[in-house]
């Protein structure tokens, strides 16, 4: 390829266009059409070419405006990981701890957000409010979680009455594309992400909150540390998972 790019960004993608599947996109890349700037209608059929040009014309100002929601809707669900290359610096990596697994019966105890290199934790009974969570989300273009679509987001919506509509990259599904399955911590170990306290689990997080409610010193501090590490490690996991998908899709594919 004439352009030695190994990170797929939105502007390298043609797959949002109707009539362009993985095979067509890969053929365009192999023909050195690796960026919107490279595209010419003769590269595909007339109708598809018109659709690609129409998409690019609409997408350029949307990308310039940082409109992640537009691309969240435009990309097929299995390819939304490509948004990460463009929005990683304005992403919010977040993780919650709870009193159990049922969002209809259990409660959120802590929420940690890792955004722009800074980590913030909100605690039930102190500063964990719908307004504070919404402020964190509103400052981000992209939310990044692990199993957040099935767990973290429903918990927050039920517990705090939120409507979470920020574009959302759930790394559990991204990892599945790489045949990385299981929970967050086994996947971290498999790809070499280390933890300060690998001995603490989600079950321990429930126990630590109960100990905190009984007034045991240090329990809340340990819980917060654990929760914060979950959020921070999501950044490392997202970087590595998308790097591997970049390589597999753009270079090796």
UniProtKB/TrEMBL annotation:
<protein>
    <recommendedName>
        <fullName>YprB ribonuclease H-like domain-containing protein</fullName>
    </recommendedName>
</protein>
<dbReference type="GO" id="GO:0003676">
    <property type="term" value="F:nucleic acid binding"/>
</dbReference>
<dbReference type="InterPro" id="IPR036397">
    <property type="entry name" value="RNaseH_sf"/>
</dbReference>
<dbReference type="InterPro" id="IPR038720">
    <property type="entry name" value="YprB_RNase_H-like_dom"/>
</dbReference>
<dbReference type="InterPro" id="IPR012337">
    <property type="entry name" value="RNaseH-like_sf"/>
</dbReference>
<dbReference type="Pfam" id="PF13482">
    <property type="entry name" value="RNase_H_2"/>
</dbReference>
<feature type="domain" description="YprB ribonuclease H-like">
    <location>
        <begin position="92"/>
        <end position="240"/>
    </location>
</feature>
């Amino acid at each position: 390829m004439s352009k030695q790019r190994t990170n797929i960004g939105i502007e390298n993608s043609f797959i949002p266009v109707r009539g362009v599947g993985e095979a067509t996109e890969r053929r365009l890349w192999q023909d050195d059409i690796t960026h919107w700037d490279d595209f010419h209608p003769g590269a595909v059929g007339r109708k598809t070419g018109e659709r690609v040009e129409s998409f690019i014309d609409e997408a350029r100002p949307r990308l310039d405006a940082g409109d992640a929601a537009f691309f969240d809707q435009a990309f097929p669900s299995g390819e939304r990981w490509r948004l990460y290359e463009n929005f990683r610096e304005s992403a919010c990596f977040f993780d919650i701890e709870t009193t159990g697994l049922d969002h209809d019966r259990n409660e959120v105890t802590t929420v940690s957000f890792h955004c722009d290199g800074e980590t913030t934790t909100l605690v039930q009974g102190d500063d964990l409010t719908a307004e504070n969570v919404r402020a964190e989300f509103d400052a981000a273009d992209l939310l990044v979680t692990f199993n957040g679509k099935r767990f973290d987001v429903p918990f927050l919506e039920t517990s705090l009455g939120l409507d979470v509509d920020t574009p959302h990259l759930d790394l559990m599904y991204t990892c599945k594309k790489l045949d990385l399955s299981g929970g967050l911590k086994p996947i971290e170990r498999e790809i070499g992400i280390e933890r300060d306290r690998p001995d603490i689990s989600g079950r321990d997080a429930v126990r630590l909150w109960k100990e905190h409610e009984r007034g045991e010193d240090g329990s809340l501090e340990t819980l917060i540390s654990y929760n914060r590490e979950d959020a921070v490690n999501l950044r490392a996991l997202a970087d590595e998972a998308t790097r591997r998908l970049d390589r597999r899709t753009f270079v090796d594919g």
